Amino acid sequence: xxxxxxxxxxxxxxxxxxxxxxxxxxxxxxxxxxxxxxxxxxxxxxxxxxxxxxxxxxxxxxxxxxxxxxxxxxxxxxxxxxxxxxxxxxxxxxxxxxxxxxxxxxxxxxxxxxxxxxxxxxxxxxxxxxxxxxxxxxxxxxxxxxxxxxxxxxxxxxxxxxxxxxxxxxxxxxxxxxxxxxxxxxxxxxxxxxxxxxxxxxxxxxxxxxxxxxxxxxxxxxxxxxxxxxxxxxxxxxxxxxxxxxxxxxxxxxxxxxxxxxxxxxxxxxxxxxxxxxxxxxxxxxxxxxxxxxxxxxxxxxxxxxxxxxxxxxxxxxxxxxxxxxxxxxxxxxxxxxxxxxxxxxxxxxxxxxxxxxxxxxxxxxxxxxxxxxxxxxxxxxxxxxxxxxxxxxxx
Length: 396
Ligand code: ADP
Ligand code: MG
What we know:
The protein is of the alpha/beta class. It folds into 2 domains: 9-175, Phosphoglycerate kinase, N-terminal domain (Rossmann fold, 3-Layer(aba) Sandwich), CATH 3.40.50.1260; 183-383, Phosphoglycerate kinase, N-terminal domain (Rossmann fold), CATH 3.40.50. The protein contains 15 helices and 17 strands. α1 crosses α2 (77-87). Magnesium ion (MG) binds at residues 353-355.
């Protein structure tokens, strides 16, 4: 991935041009009110740069999953209002639909430095299907294409791969560029020692990433429910913990592989176990001796200290996946400790994954990370070593 040069927005002439910018404005809404505008703010540098360079800015995004039909609940109207406030441009015109006469008129009427937002791309089934007719209609609105939506870069949708196929002048926006730069530092020319911390619910979700990282890292730390399967593969008794019985052979294989390649694969020694996530009977037990009626729901204090020790020597750290069921406060300590350890360390540090990033934000520790990836699925695909379609589509 890192070898492919990504065209930069700063190399394109934007003045007087209709510039289609794919952004990720998929913000959380509650009763029509934006509850977190982080994603809108994240796109501001790119939008402001385009405005300052006299582009005629046409933004496009999806919001939620309207499944190809118009649905006012998923209108980008509140986003247009919020964006206008943040940009201080007076007005952001929202089109009636993302394609068609209305959108065309708005696009052609734009003057230099003005901003329009196309209504939700996913009101049209052509977006997720990358339908050629839809793609052509969308592409015809602009003359230059910028992708600044890392969160959808792993999807072969019309606005991600179809539109750039029609437009010769295209580039990555600043947010996408930043994501690629940070994640590439975890893939090639990595400063050693490199420690990856993987957690979360299932080994099956993370197989590809483990396989790709195992010969790049010095040490792979495994926590969360995923560690249970590895502990069981080593012969431990896991009680009622989440264990993927069909992944035991794979876990054994990965343990053997790490040994033969001289990579440390570290799993927890102790866990916090309880009969259920809201039971009052939580206790610290060895991971290989969880009582029959209890399940491992967080990493224990010895494990937190051991992980901290390993991470203290790292120069590069990637973290994905919570260390426990952090949504329940009594099992959040291991995940918060991990966030504290990494954020307090001098290494180049990146956290990616929807739940992991949410945990870091919840603990208010984002500032301690060099990069907090805005794309859950996309960052994982990138670290699996896959070429993301949205990035490939920017090649001339
Ligand atoms: P990310 O979104 O950061 O990639 P995942 O989606 O893979 O992370 O995993 C997050 C989920 O894993 C959370 O819902 C969390 O509750 C769950 N989880 C982590 N550890 C455990 C555990 N020991 N038992 C049950 N669930 C767990
Ligand atoms: Mg998740």
